[in-house]
Amino acid sequence: MKVTLRTDVLTNNNKAAEFNRELFKETNTLVINIMSSPGAGKTTILEETVRALSSRYRIAVIEGDLATERDADRIRALGAQAVQINTHGGCHLDARMIAACLAEFNLEEIDLLFIENVGNLVCPSGYDLGEHHKVVVLSVPEGNDKIPKYPIMFMRTELVLLNKVDLLPYLDFDVRVAIADLEGINPASKLLSVSAKTKEGLASWFSWIEEAYSLCLKREM
């Protein structure tokens, strides 16, 4: 039996993404969707980002997890507004989830909105949330095989943060191989080596955000 799909299964998601995108445009809010496998260090990087940039930008975070408010609580402890989305088994955030929680923010008073997606290198890559940029955090302990094994995730990102580089002396990870693998899959993407623990390389990440925010303002004018 042949089944013909006449409607894009992501149609509802894409409509919600367009709604989100228009809202972000109207309020001049830069939105960055951060994705990774579990434990790569997304939340710790966001904590350091809030610490470094909150004196110059109004920052908020949407946290995606299967359960608990632990990551949102870590962000709130730094004085930034955070809303937790618990997917109760779902492996990603979608645009409708984002749209449903935006009423909890006054976007007119937010310059930078970070979305920390559910830890997963597969599902989150397929969903447009209405964000401006997709960023993937890859950590040294994960090994060199993640980029070639999960190509769709890395095809769709503009920036890869290689986290936990302070562990390079102790683990079998080759940064040059990671750069070559990324270039082979997505030549337009860039890899930045960082350590959320020692703060190595984070200045380049902060500069990337500031440049992205400036470009966002120019586009929306």
Overview features:
221 residues; alpha/beta; Rossmann fold; 7-stranded parallel sheet; 8 helices; globular
What does this structure look like?
α3 links the parallel β2 (59-65) and β3 (81-86). The mean pLDDT is 94. 37% of the residues lie in helices and 19% in strands. The chain is globular. It has helices at residues 11-27, 42-53, 70-76, 95-101, 146-149, 151-155, 175-185, 202-220, and strands spanning 30-36, 59-65, 81-86, 112-116, 133-139, 159-163, 190-193. It has a single domain (11-220), classed as P-loop containing nucleotide triphosphate hydrolases (Rossmann fold, 3-Layer(aba) Sandwich), CATH 3.40.50.300. α1 (11-27) packs across α4. It has a seven-stranded parallel beta sheet with strand order 3-2-4-1-5-6-7, sandwiched between helices. The relative contact order is 0.18. With 221 residues, the protein is an alpha/beta fold. It has eight helices and seven strands.
- Spans of 5+ residues with little confidence (pLDDT < 50)? none
What is the overall number of helices?
Answer: 8
Proportion in β-strands: 15-25%
Distance between the termini: 52 Å
The CATH class name reads Alpha Beta
Number of domains: 1
The biggest sheet, with number of strands, parallel, antiparallel or mixed sense and barrel status, is: 7 strands, parallel
